[in-house]
Specification:
2 copies of one chain form a homodimer. With about 90 residues, chain A is mainly alpha-helical. Chain A has 5 helices and 1 strand; from the N terminus they run αααααβ. In chain A, helix 1 packs across helix 5 (about 70-80) and helix 3 (about 40-50) packs antiparallel against helix 5 (about 70-80). Strand 1 of chain A pairs antiparallel with strand 1 (about 85) of chain B.
Chain lengths: ~90, ~90
């Protein structure tokens, strides 16, 4: 499964929605918005949480079991949203 | 200067604009959008880059000389933008 699969990412993202929102607009005060963030950035951060290169109480636990495919799909899902400044 | 000062933050953010854009919409593929991110999240990440708790080639260098006031002002500036999903 070399291609990123945003649909599988959406499935996987159900466990992220509590803090990051269903469409990547954060629900929790300390959680970042993920919607529209660059795919490479999102994948890199998930891998950093998984490896421990980046630490966060919640994210370190959540990222641990993710496979590379999960990470690519999640990154594809959240980066698939487009955001704009509210003028 | 206990209150966050987004105007001073805008001044300081001139050195961030190359990657993160003037209004926090990223210009570089691997740089995250900062616009509309929660103030506490932004401040926490800048402090992590400054202390080395979070590592990034560019950000570690840029965050090093920032004062707490700089960090609060930058966080206030970027979080002052509102973002929405492009429907």
């Amino acid at each position: 499964q070399d291609k990123q699969d945003p649909k599988a990412g959406k499935e996987k993202a159900q466990s992220c929605a509590m803090c990051h929102g269903n469409e990547g607009m954060a629900q929790m005060p300390n959680a970042p918005h993920l919607a529209g963030q660059p795919t490479a950035y999102l994948a890199e951060q998930l891998k950093a949480f998984r490896s421990g290169a980046r630490k966060n109480e919640i994210m370190s636990v959540i990222a641990k079991p993710l496979s590379d495919a999960d990470i690519d799909n999640l990154a594809a899902y959240y980066s698939s949203f487009e955001i704009q400044l509210k003028r």
